[in-house]
């Protein structure tokens, strides 16, 4: 029996336990996957207790991804680049490895399911939080023409531009044309961002799904976006990669997407 958990705050609505149980059933494995609501300042304590109770791995969500990067003894290359961890692997020798599967999850969804190409494209990434940093190394690896980034707070975007040479910070996005726009904020951003151009030739991807996808969806439709996708496919792909890192077994993400698209 594998023992996993997701740590975050809030955590009530997380789909992760159901997704991982679905994977386990597919692969005929037994898992216990809990949601652990974690008060701010208590991540280390909660993780230590979970490990003492025999935890094999953990997912980390808002607002602890950067703190989890500090908790890990070692980081994978993709986690080191993003300084953000969504997956912890507790090895039998007591070592804790921090990984970030958001980037590979994003890339698999965007290239395998949606068949969007990033190479030589002009991309606008909206947001500079943990999720934006998590997917950046994967975006860069596809060699787009430009990666423009807009964020509400200047400090985070300055840090991002310092850490990632390929990033071009933009303060005004009105006069640019983008092939792909990625929303990596958790905001009602249409009130904050003045983008009055048409999006007829632009594919729009939202990391959010369900209710939280609605404002971005409406905004894209209003501006006649060519194609719009929510973040459910990415959620399932990043979970599939975490599951693989923990168990060495690869789940079938497309089956899960069908199931969870129907139930959300
Ligand atoms: P963070 O808290 O780290 O970052 C939030 C981002 O949203 C920041 O860039 C922040 O800007 C911006 N933001 C918040 N409020 C506003 C506002 N009113 N106006 C403009 N910008 C705003 O969160 P994460 O990066 O971890 O997550 C972002 C979203 O992505 C979440 O909704 C999360 O659920 C989703 N997500 C989805 C995944 C999936 O698999 N589908 C995986 C990971 C995340 P500022 O810097 O100015 O505060």
List keywords for this structure.
alpha/beta; six-stranded mixed beta sheet; binds NADPH dihydro-nicotinamide-adenine-dinucleotide phosphate
Describe what this molecule looks like in 3D.
Strand 1 (2-8), helix 1 and strand 2 form a beta-alpha-beta unit. Helix 1 packs across helix 9, helix 5 (102-113) crosses helix 6 and helix 5 crosses helix 9. The chain starts with a strand and ends with a helix. It has helices at 16-26, 43-52, 65-71, 77-82, 102-113, 130-141, 154-163, 214-222, 232-247, 253-263; strands at 2-8, 31-37, 57-60, 74-75, 87-90, 96-99, 122-126, 146-150, 167-169, 180-183, 203-206, 227-229. The protein has a six-stranded mixed beta sheet, with helices on both faces. It is built from ten helices and twelve strands. The chain has 264 residues and is an alpha/beta fold. The structure holds NADPH dihydro-nicotinamide-adenine-dinucleotide phosphate. NADPH dihydro-nicotinamide-adenine-dinucleotide phosphate binds at residues 62-63, 65, 102, 105, 127-132, 151-153, 156, 184-187, 189, 192, 207-208, 212, 231, 234-235, 238. The site of NADPH dihydro-nicotinamide-adenine-dinucleotide phosphate (NDP) has 28 residues, from helix 5, helix 6 and helix 9.
